[in-house]
Amino acid sequence: MGVRRVGQVIRVRPEAIDEYEALHAAPWDGVLATLRAANIRNYSIYRHGEALFAYYEYTGDDYEADLARIAADPVTQAWWKLTDAMQEPYPERPEGSWWLDLREVFHLD
Q1: For residues 42-62, b (16+ Cβ closer than 10 Å) or e, as one string?
Q2: Which of 4, 44, 64, 105 is most buried, by CB atoms within 10 Å?
Q3: How would you write the pLDDT of the chain (109 residues) with one tens digit per residue?
Q4: Does the residue 107 lie in any domain?
Q5: How far, in whole angstroms, is CA 34 from its chain's centroid?
Q6: Residue 86 lies in domain
């Protein structure tokens, strides 16, 4: 299987921008280890105003199982408890999703 590229968006609450960026300037080692163990690579989050854009590459063979592994990790759950309170999801996201996945329209390899 090749690399799966994922782009996502969500909003950050204006009053939480500084705290959100400070938290991501020093991410927890346990969260990073869980992402790596779940085959997530080249993960970046960008901000424009209140919009957050995330991009990552998935290099594994079972995307859903690896996402479930991330969601089951207690350290990641504690991280999400902090970050979710700072975010405002887009209403059109699919049920059960927090970030809204974007459709890729162009890629130069």
Answers
A1: eeeeeeeeeebebebebebee
A2: 4
A3: 689 999 999 999 999 999 999 999 999 999 999 999 999 999 999 999 999 999 999 999 999 999 999 999 999 999 999 999 999 999 999 988 999 999 999 999 8
A4: no
A5: 12
A6: 4-101
